[in-house]
Structure prediction request, 367 residues.
Amino acid sequence: MLHLLDKNIKSNFVNIGTGLKVHYLECNFAIKKDNPVVLLLHGFPEISFSWRKILPLLAKEGFRVIAIDQRGYGKTIGGSIKYEEDIREYNLINLCSDIVSFLEEMKINKIELLVGHDAGSIVAGAATLIRPDLFKSLVMMSAPFTGPSKFEIDKNKVDIHNELKELNPPRKHYQWYYSTKKANNDMHLSSKEKLGYFLRSYFHVKSADWKYNDPFELSSWTGKELEKLPEYYIMKQEDTMVESVIKFFPKSIKCEWLTENELDVYTNTFFENGFQSALNWYRCMTSEHQNKELNVFQGKLITNSALYISGEKDWGMFQKPGALNQMKNLCSNFKGIKIIKNAGHWVQQEKPEDVTEVILNFYSSFA
Prediction:
């Protein structure tokens, strides 16, 4: 992996108080004690390596930039890896505790920019809500953070799974599929070649390279509306995720934003570790109980400056109808939604220069 990184990016480990040995990448051209710090949080199925292009770009602007492998991912050691084990450590409160503990061990008392992508965006949003003193600004990418669930019982709750089953053909939601025991077995394929083939397909269909990504806002959380999402979100009932995406394996595997050598980093990582610990995040997200501790912050707003970034070809901003408005209402100092042209879900990998420019402009608006 290191030979694919900018020479100024260093790979390190640190033991933290929540029981992890955290692997992180760090880039800092001008080593000064008061350098503003940027912390980057990846999503699924990614690792700190996903920020390889952003790290040196922000460092050149005078930031100390750190990207970590979060609990259950990459080279970070610790965290349950079996389906049968207790998954509470993967709920949002505990994932945020990992971040705070990491900063304590690193003797960092302030993060100027907390940037999260995909599931990392949700952690970044929750962390900023809980600790606005520590995280001075928030950049969410691809996945809007909508805040804690409400305490009251929703009497009009839609049985979305039954509605999806009644479609023709019957369908299922990928997050609940990821929460099943079989998901890891389905995706943790028997050879690196097969796994690489799957991951290439997965990265491809969620990028701007796949011509069928043309996202638009859905009107409601109903089966008929969710059916409009691509198969990598709303899967056919009988399909695995491998079957859902591998049929769209690109005819040409020449990909400038994710070369074969770069893809190999992901392939080797997930071949060695499997997906279960990463999928435990989804099990907590789809559970009605695992994130209840966050509900104590219901009604609290994110008061620090906040921004949302999405690729124009990324369905992530629309996969949950109404989420963008919930996010805007949650952030009292919201600086807007920035759409990156010719980028899909992997926006920081597909268009790193454009993303960096947006982040720097955002920072300059309040720094």
